[in-house]
Predict the structure.
Amino acid sequence: MNTVKVDFIAIDNNWDKKVSEHHFDIYHLSGWIHASAIVDKGKPQGVIAHYKNKEVLLPLIIRDIDSIYWDATSTYGYGGPLMDKTLTDAEVDLILDEIKAFLFKKGCVSLFMRLHPIINKGWIPTVGKALTHGLTLMSDLRKSEEDHWNETQNRHRRGIKKALKMDVVTKTEYLTKQNTMMFSSIYKETMRHVKASDYYFFDDDYFFNLLKHLQERILLITAYQDNKAIGSSIYTICKESGIMQFHLGGTLNEYIHMQPSKLITHVARDWGRNNNYKVLHLGGGVGSNLDSLYEYKKGFSSQELLFKTYRLIVNTEKYANLVAGIWFSDSDLRSDFFPLYRKESTEEVLEVGQAEPLVNML
């Protein structure tokens, strides 16, 4: 009889070796998970399940609730589960049942994961629930330069040409201590400009962790005008899977009219195509909405993917008690924010627990 064996696994080099056996992205690697733990104020922790010599990996960040109980969330980004491709849907659900029982014994109340729009595409679990929140956009980097230009909307073509006419130039490089600080300054100015919540004002330790552990897996593309950095964006690159993704970006307020972000996106797409990556995932709108940010990204590609999250109530009784101990309005109770007991207020601009990561390209 085949049984499922579940255990914790440290997020370290051994974890990365396990991850490398799967179709993975940068969000599954230990360096990313440790950096994300700074954002979510938790502890990196992996869960590994074996069944018939096949495995499932869950990259998690554990957050304490009290001295006994805790819950788990995925990394900032798209750190969904990694599964052996030969597992059937029934086998995956069997494994998830055992993972749920294991987590219950360890004191877990709930599990939340942002699913990867590419790697977890098509996964519909029956243990727990997967919710669809909106659309993200992806550019096929196997297309030609001419194809990419043709699918670029006229308004973006004009913006790219305007930036070049105003002598805006770009530099593509890996992270260094100096350019990390430069990016952080530009990014934070943009977050202030768009009145982002405190959650998105990442501490510099977050960026330095990315620099320390993932330097050659992160590109920084910066736009300059008269040798002054006026806009900059971080792109993640995973050669093994051929996936390139936009992560964070910003533009100095007084230079927005020069359209540096459009030039940066254009250059990123060229870089990915020329370096034999398969896709450039641009993400979606703020909170997965079909907003101006979504429309901006659609200007570079109309190829859409679904953004989903996975949520699992591990300890039903404790979850209910936590929710009952907090006053919520009727609108709060109708919200699909998860876990509900961590919902701060109906005034929150972006519901971090349910939404796609905030990516800004202003």
Remarks:
- The chain has a mean pLDDT of 92.
